[in-house]
Each structure stands twice: as structure tokens, then as C-alpha cells.
């Protein structure tokens, strides 16, 4: 399956920004599952690619001149092998046992993980966990913020794909299974309304297995992977800081076509 | 339970040890009023010099003077040579361990340290995996904490490889002693330490592949407890003291904002923890660091001293393996001993610890500064029971050690001169070679019977002498 992506994000500010710097994880990598036919980033200034600590392709965009807006675009075509379920990438697995502030399990999440999986530490156990979380946490945009933790979202019983993924990571790590955050794109029927997506991968003896809680999918289908990390903060497509500018409006458009 | 302590000045029969003869006869001849007068002068001078310490956990953020005791801690040269060799051996092995851990992981493959204990440790930094550092040095500056048990044997209590502090007290204590009691230094040869700032600067410069690199000291700012030391070291080395906002990153290079325009920065002696270095890569809420710094570091365009991720080697759960590291990497027997350590993460060791809490010291694996610890013999039943509950709730976060008696040194207290417990922190610098200045920082627990020497817990300092036997 061939996917065409057009992703444009516009940041506009009330006042001029004096300077800004962004870490961009907007470039997919070659893997067993995806072959990058073409990919191009449109940036206001050239930025060199480097590999980040999690093995992702990172661009660092530094803007030293005053600016009122930034437009970042990513366009390309990727061939997906949708028959492949399991992935391997040669990176260290054990660090993904570690909890972070956003993925810390509280008593409620720990109890939930054990209740769903009991003694099982296999794919079937995790599939039940995935459905359990999707039942417990209604998909509800606006119910949480980017800084919400897994425990907060779980306690509130609602969230978006980021919260679903964080809660799933908290539970998996509680069970002693290395698990990581994945950010990327997903092709759906109503693609016009979908922004970037997030899901989880868990290491089960022989490879990384995907679990998309928001879509109740226990295998990647029309998923295109951009970056992985311990949580949202490591893997999110854009993370930046700026001096000046006042309030920010962000406008993102993602088009995914088959 | 009676304990016997090793006293630095007097032997078990109360006879003055040879290396203290000079000092003891001076002390006997000097009128007490004169000594009291000099001690008041010392207090005044320290206040003027601004050597204060902000107390954490104190709501008012009180700046407090670290008490300075005018009776020096003295070490005979032959003994110091052993301590020095031991510290060098240890820091070499720890640097080799870090280089191995972030590259081939031979020591994990050999099964000497369990993989999960290292790789799932939060101080293990994925950002360092596969990154080549100039000379392969991670801990350019280390502070090795030593104590002496009842028979005078030295033990390493911990290896501080992140941002060890206290060296400014070592230097200022010596300046103070020379100013107050010049006659003491005329009468005997005390090994000098005033070249430390030069050694530190040459260590930092040699960490960079650049010729004559631009070195800066990065401080979290004046609200940090060790701000005085950051400013002091920058001044002594003749380099800029900067805060995060004074630096910026452009195209993976670090620059300092100056009135004459941006100036490239090659080496950052950072006194800021890993988590605060770069808000785009670590803690996003911290404004103390430099956005983009990690990208510059990983591109090899700037040196951080110490490197990121050294904490995995001085973590208290890794400490028990340091003697194995020395054997593994250097093929040598350890010169300095480790304190026997029980890892509460192992159920059998935990039950031993729980059954013997009254006799043990229990510490958090991630803690420092003496805040999250239990000193069993010095604690009440209620304190022990409260700690037991914390330990049982999260055993993996704790280790336990026997309570060492800690040597004592005569110290001025309200009632006159009395023995108080001390430790020793030599500062170990690694550049082209691994070096120390003679001695280090001696901390003294001023409360009678107390074994906690941390300045945050009422500890003071003493000048540390290395003298010919």
C-alpha cells in the first residue's frame, strides 16, 4: 500500500518572536514495514538532519531573526508493507521499561493492568488490556491537555490518542514489558479531520508489536511511523521554545491518501 | 552497644600521633583567648567573603554560613599516597565503565552487572549510546567520599560523578587558615592546594579537541545552594560564569551572547543536572538550560563536563559493582575498600535489612545530601518504623550498609575541644591524566555523636592537611 502525505503546520503569533528553536521529528525511516519513496521537509531555513537518542531522524530548526509565523511542511510518499506485524530495529530494549513523569503508573493503573492481564504477559493479554483501556477512557478531544499524565487521563476516564498511549505504556511497564510511544500518521476513511496519530509498541520476546488503543487495532494497518520514544515528549513531531511572540495559534493540516 | 572510634590526632592510649605533633604543641602554647578571637575573625571573614549555603527544605531559603573549624584534619603523606592511588584507580575504572556501557557493553555481556539494573536505570541516558567523547572521558571531575572505620581503614562511601561540590570550601578553608595562623604554616610543610583552579582549567581545556577552547561555567543561578562555588571557580579560572539564558544554539553550535556579538563556546563546565540541560530534550518545564544543547552536544560541537549520563555509575545500586569494575577493566585489585552493601531489591537481602534496621544505615539509591536516609543506631523506634514502611513500599529504591563508626578529629565546640566525626572528599580531575591536589574537603558532624556530615544536616568543614610523616 502506497501512502501520500501532505502535512502542513502553521504557527502564528500575536507579536513578533525574537528567536525560536524547534526539534522536528517529521521524517519517516526505512524499516521492515515502510519504504520511503520520497520525502521532503519544507522549512523557513535550512536545517541538517541528525539521529536523536531514540534513533529517530531529527531536524533542529533555529530561527535567530524576528518572525511572526513559521510554516513547516512535510510531503512525501511511503510504501507500506501491511502484511508485516512485527518490527525490529536493533535498538536497546530494556530502557523502555522505565517510567517517565507522563507514563508513571499510580495504584489505579497498576491494579487495572493486573486485572486485565492477570498472569499473561503475551499478545492476547495486551489485546485485552487495549480493549479495556479503550472502554475505560472515552475518546474525547479537549478532555485532556498535552501535559496530562497517564494517571490523570485514566482517572478522568477520557482522553485522546496521546493519553490512551501513555496509559497503555504505564500498564505494560508495570507488567515488566518494555513499551514505547510511537508518533506518526494514520490513514482513515475521514482523513480530512485527522491530525497526527500516536500508538504504542511493546517488546514481546521476538520483536515490537503495535497496539493502537484509540482504534482498537492490535496490528499496524494504515499506520506510518515517524518517531519513537519513552513518551510523547521524546517522540512528538514538533517541540520548540521561543522568546517573545505572546500567544500562539497553531493550525495543522494533514492529508493522507492511498 | 559501645563503639570504638579511630581518632585522627590521638591513638587508643591518648598519645598524639606523630604527624600531629607540630600542631598539638602549637595548640598547647597558644592562649585560649587568642584562639577564640581568631575564630571570631574567621566567622567575620567568611561572612564578608559570602561563603554561604542555601538550605533546602527550609521554607525561608535561609542562607547559612557553613561552620568552619580551626583545628585541621591532617593526613600523613605515606597514607595520602595510598588514598591518592586508590582514588585514581577508582575514577579510571568508572570512566572506563561509562565508556563501555555507552558502547560495546562488555561488562554486561560478561554477566558482571545485570543488564536490567543498568539499562532500566533512569540515570542511564540513551542520548549517550554510541556517542564518542574526546579521550573517552565522562567524569572529568569526581568527588570520592571516604570515611575511616574503627581501626582506621579507609572506605569509599560513594563516588560523586555528576556535579560534586565543595571544592570552594577546600580552597577557602586553606586561605583562612593561612591568614589566621601563618605561624603554623611556617613551622611545618603542608602540601599546597592553591593550584586546583589551574588544574581544573587545564582539565576542562583538554576535554576539547579544539585548540585553546573557550570554557564557561554554567550555573542554575543565584538561588542554587552552590552558586557561591560556581562564581568562585569561574573567577579563579578566569572564565565566564553564565546562566542558560546567556547561551544559545544555532545550527548545532553553542554561542554566548556578549556585547561584542555571539562568541562560540567549546567547553561547558555545567553545574546543572542532566534533566535541566535542554528543555527540548529533557524536562520541558525547566528554563535553566539551553534549548538545543543536546543536538549540539551529540553533533560533537561542544563538550559538557561532566558528560551526560554519568549518574548511572555513581548510583547507589551500581556502587557495589565498582570493585568488580576495577578488576574487570584494569586487572588490578582495588586499593580502597567498598562498604559492604545490601541491595533491598533482592528479597533475601531485604529481609536481612528489615530484621536489622536498628544497626544499619539505609539510603535511597537516587538520594544525595543525606535527606532520605536512616541511621539505625541514632534513630528512635518511631523513626525506624516509619522508615520500615517506606522501605517495604518500594524496596528497589534503597540499599543498606553497616553503620561505620567514622573516625573523629578534635573540634572546637561550646564546651571546649571535643572529638567529632569526619569524612573526606578528595576531588579527582581527569584530562590527559588523572590527578588530585593533596587532601580534599573534610566535613565534620558538629552534633555530638552524629555521623551525618552533610552541610544540609548541620555539618561543618575543616582545612585538610597532607604533611610529611
From TrEMBL, chain A:
Coiled-coil intervals: none
UniProt xrefs under InterPro entries: Bac_transglu_N (IPR013589), Papain-like_cys_pep_sf (IPR038765), Transglutaminase-like (IPR002931)
SUPFAM superfamilies: Cysteine proteinases
Transglutaminase-like domain ranges (all copies): 153-215
Residue intervals passing through the bilayer: none
Gene3D superfamilies: 3.10.620.30
Superkingdom as given in the UniProt entry: Bacteria
Signal peptide: none
Pfam name, any one: Transglut_core
Protein's name according to its UniProt entry: Transglutaminase
Source taxonomy: Bacteria, Pseudomonadati, Pseudomonadota, Gammaproteobacteria, Pseudomonadales
Automatic annotation (TrEMBL), chain B:
InterPro entries referenced in this protein's UniProt entry, alphabetically: ATP-dep_Glu-Cys_Ligase-2 (IPR051680), CP_ATPgrasp_2 (IPR025841), UCP005522 (IPR016450)
UniProt domain Circularly permuted ATP-grasp type: residue ranges: 72-445
Protein name, entry field: Circularly permuted ATP-grasp type 2 domain-containing protein
Amino acid at each position: 500500500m502506497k501512502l501520500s502525505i501532505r502535512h502542513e503546520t502553521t504557527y502564528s503569533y500575536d507579536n513578533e518572536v525574537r528567536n525560536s528553536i524547534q526539534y522536528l521529528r517529521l521524517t519517516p525511516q526505512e524499516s521492515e514495514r515502510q519504504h520511503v519513496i520520497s520525502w521532503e521537509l519544507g522549512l523557513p531555513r535550512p536545517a541538517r538532519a541528525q539521529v536523536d537518542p531514540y534513533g529517530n531522524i531529527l531536524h533542529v530548526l533555529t530561527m535567530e531573526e524576528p518572525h511572526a509565523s513559521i510554516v513547516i511542511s512535510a510531503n512525501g510518499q511511503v510504501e507500506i508493507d501491511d502484511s508485516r506485524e512485527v518490527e525490529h530495529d536493533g535498538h536497546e530494549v530494556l530502557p523502555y521499561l522505565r517510567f517517565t513523569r507522563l507514563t508513571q503508573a499510580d495504584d489505579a493503573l497498576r491494579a487495572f493492568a493486573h486485572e486485565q492481564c492477570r498472569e499473561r504477559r503475551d499478545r492476547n493479554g495486551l489485546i485485552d488490556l487495549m480493549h479495556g483501556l479503550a472502554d475505560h477512557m472515552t475518546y474525547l478531544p479537549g478532555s485532556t491537555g498535552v501535559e496530562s499524565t497517564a494517571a490523570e487521563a485514566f482517572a478522568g476516564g477520557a482522553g485522546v490518542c496521546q493519553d490512551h498511549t501513555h496509559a497503555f505504556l504505564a500498564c505494560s511497564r508495570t507488567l515488566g514489558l518494555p513499551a514505547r510511544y510511537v508518533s506518526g500518521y494514520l490513514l482513515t476513511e475521514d482523513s480530512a479531520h485527522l491530525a497526527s496519530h500516536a500508538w504504542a509498541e511493546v517488546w514481546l520476546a521476538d520483536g515490537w508489536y503495535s497496539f493502537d488503543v484509540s482504534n482498537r487495532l492490535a496490528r499496524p494497518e494504515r499506520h506510518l511511523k515517524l518517531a519513537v520514544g519513552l513518551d510523547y515528549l521524546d517522540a512528538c513531531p514538533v517541540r520548540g521554545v521561543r522568546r517573545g511572540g505572546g500567544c500562539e495559534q497553531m493550525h495543522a493540516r494533514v492529508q493522507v491518501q492511498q | 552497644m559501645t563503639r570504638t572510634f579511630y581518632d585522627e590526632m590521638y591513638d587508643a592510649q591518648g598519645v598524639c600521633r606523630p604527624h600531629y605533633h607540630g600542631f598539638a604543641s602549637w595548640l598547647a602554647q597558644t592562649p585560649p583567648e587568642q584562639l577564640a578571637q581568631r575564630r571570631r575573625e574567621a566567622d567575620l571573614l567568611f561572612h564578608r567573603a559570602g561563603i554561604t549555603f542555601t538550605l533546602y527544605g527550609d521554607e525561608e531559603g535561609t542562607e547559612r554560613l557553613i561552620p568552619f573549624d580551626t583545628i585541621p584534619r591532617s593526613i600523613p603523606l605515606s597514607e595520602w599516597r595510598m588514598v591518592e592511588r586508590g582514588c585514581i584507580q577508582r575514577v579510571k575504572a568508572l570512566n572506563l565503565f561509562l565508556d563501555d556501557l555507552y558502547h560495546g557493553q562488555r561488562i554486561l555481556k560478561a554477566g558482571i552487572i545485570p543488564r536490567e539494573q543498568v539499562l532500566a536505570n533512569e540515570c542511564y541516558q540513551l542520548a549517550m549510546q554510541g556517542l564518542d567523547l574526546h579521550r573517552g572521558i565522562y567524569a572529568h571531575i569526581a568527588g570520592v567520599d571516604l570515611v575511616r572505620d574503627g581501626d582506621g581503614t579507609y572506605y569509599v562511601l560513594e563516588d560523586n560523578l555528576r556535579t560534586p561540590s565543595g571544592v570552594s570550601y577546600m580552597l577557602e578553608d586553606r586561605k583562612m587558615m593561612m591568614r589566621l595562623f601563618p605561624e603554623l604554616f611556617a613551622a611545618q610543610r603542608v602540601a599546597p592546594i592553591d593550584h586546583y583552579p589551574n588544574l581544573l582549567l587545564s582539565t576542562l581545556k583538554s576535554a576539547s579537541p579544539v585548540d585553546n577552547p573557550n570554557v564557561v561555567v554554567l550555573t542554575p543561578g543565584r538561588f542554587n545552594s552552590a552558586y557561591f562555588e560556581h562564581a568562585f571557580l569561574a573567577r579563579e579560572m578566569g572564565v565566564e560564569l553564565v546562566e542558560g539564558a546567556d547561551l544559545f544554539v544555532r545550527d548545532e553550535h553553542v554561542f554566548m551572547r556578549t556585547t561584542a556579538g555571539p562568541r562560540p563556546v567549546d567547553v561547558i563546565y555545567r553545574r546543572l543536572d542532566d534533566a535541566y540541560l535542554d528543555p527540548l530534550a529533557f524536562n520541558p518545564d525547566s528554563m535553566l538550560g539551553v534549548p538545543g544543547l543536546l543536538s549540539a552536544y551529540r553533533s560533537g560541537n561542544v563538550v559538557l563536563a561532566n558528560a551526560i549520563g554519568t549518574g548511572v555509575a555513581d548510583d547507589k545500586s551500581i556502587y557495589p559493582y565498582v570493585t568488580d569494575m576495577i578488576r574487570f577493566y584494569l586487572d588490578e585489585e582495588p586499593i580502597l575498600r567498598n562498604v559492604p552493601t545490601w541491595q533491598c531489591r533482592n528479597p533475601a537481602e531485604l529481609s536481612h535489612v528489615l530484621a536489622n534496621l536498628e544497626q544499619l544505615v539505609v539510603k535511597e539509591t537516587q538520594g544525595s545530601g543525606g535527606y532520605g536516609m536512616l541511621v539505625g543506631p541514632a534513630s528512635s523506634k518511631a523513626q525506624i518504623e516509619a522508615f520500615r514502611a517506606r522501605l517495604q513500599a518500594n524496596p528497589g529504591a534503597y540499599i543498606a550498609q553497616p553503620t561505620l563508626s567514622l573516625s573523629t578529629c578534635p573540634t572546637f565546640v561550646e564546651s571546649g575541644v571535643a572529638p567529632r566525626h569526619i569524612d573526606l572528599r578528595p576531588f579527582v580531575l581527569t584530562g590527559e591524566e588523572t590527578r588530585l591536589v593533596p587532601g580534599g574537603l573534610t566535613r565534620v558532624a558538629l552534633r555530638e555523636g552524629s555521623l551525618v556530615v552533610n552541610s544540609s544536616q548541620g555539618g561543618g568543614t575543616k582545612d585538610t592537611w597532607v604533611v610529611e610523616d
